[in-house]
Amino acid sequence: MAGPNAPIDKCDCDVIHQDIIDWVRDKMPREETLYDLAEFFKVFGDSTRIRILWALAESEMCVCDIANLLNMTQSAISHQLRVLKQAALVKSRRDGKVVYYSLDDEHVQQIIDQGMTHINEK
Amino acid sequence: MAGPNAPIDKCDCDVIHQDIIDWVRDKMPREETLYDLAEFFKVFGDSTRIRILWALAESEMCVCDIANLLNMTQSAISHQLRVLKQAALVKSRRDGKVVYYSLDDEHVQQIIDQGMTHINEK
DNA sequence: TGTTCATATGAATGTTTATTCATATGTTCC
DNA sequence: GGAACATATGAATAAACATTCATATGAACA
Prior knowledge:
The structure is a homodimer. By secondary structure, chain A is mainly alpha-helical.
């Protein structure tokens, strides 16, 4: 296992527990899956988006309502709603000129609640 | 409610549903709480940290092991472990020169699992 | 058809952040 | 005490990202 295409060892410590490393590596999901998982949580990792999600958990709202509730510009809210929609966390319906947003997933509430539980316990 | 100190309305739409806004505002947690919640989820929103958490869910590991498992530098791993420790998601114990890390919270597994469930369903 | 209104979007900007490099800290063994 | 090793950390850099501004799209109404 040496030569031009050998993987570069980024850490050259002597105390490598190779058996554990191999065992854990075998149990890890595919790299791509874990990347997707991180992308998913990243959506919750912004206070504006969390506030939007929390608001929508209470009631369907139009873009304008959310902007007023959070005292932010319509543009900023619209940009974040796009992120939330791409993550399949919210859905929208159009009624004339007005677009109403609501939660698109029953998990959203659970995930937020679980995070809140952690926050409150520490 | 006008004058030099009046709050600036960031959105001047006509179709404001003021009753809904007031009702939702009343049910929202404190701004600071939602900020903390976003900070909490932000920790899960990085693939390196998610991979570290997943690995530690399988077995206690030293910094060097994690670096080799993920093929990253010891420094990069150490920096991320600090973030995870500050978020109270991992704990460490020292054994001579070697520092072993493990999960510090029973919620971590649940939160990751729930995120994974969402990923797999969409 | 033209105007008004609600929302969406592209480009620019400032901030945050993950990684790297160099080096410091802390432990063991001689 | 000094050398060797595992980990921690500060500064620098590059990439990611949230917000703003200007403007486009799309619907209602006259």
